[in-house]
Amino acid sequence: MSGLDIFAIIVLLILLFAVVAIWIVLAMLPGKIAAKRNHPQAEAINIGGWLGAILGGVFWPFFLVWAFTKPIRITSAGEAEEIQDLYKRIAALEAQGTSRVGRK
User: Fold this and answer.
1) How far is CA 88 from CA 3, 16, 28, 54, in A?
2) Which of 2, 33, 61, 93 has the smallest C-beta neighbourhood within 10 Å, fewest atoms?
3) Within a 13 Å sphere around the CA of 48, how many CA atoms are in the beta-carbon half?
4) Over pLDDT 90: what percentage of the chain?
5) How many helices (H) and strands (E) does the chain have?
């Protein structure tokens, strides 16, 4: 084996190590983001990030987006009533919009 062959093997090993390290960092990224943002489903996002990485990145972007979202937390009965009122207003607007479409 010549010096050039040894150099090529060393370069290939470094590249292989870099690819594995990047893969691990990307797999951990959604879970770390969710934990840093105190997401209530941080553990599920962490597992999903690893699962997405194992499956070749198919679902990985979904878990990354999920890590940045926060579910609506209802802290009081008043807020729950306000949300129900908003749903009713949206339904009324949708009904009004569909009735206008029929007139044109």
Assistant:
1) 76, 57, 41, 43
2) 2
3) 19
4) 67
5) 4, 0
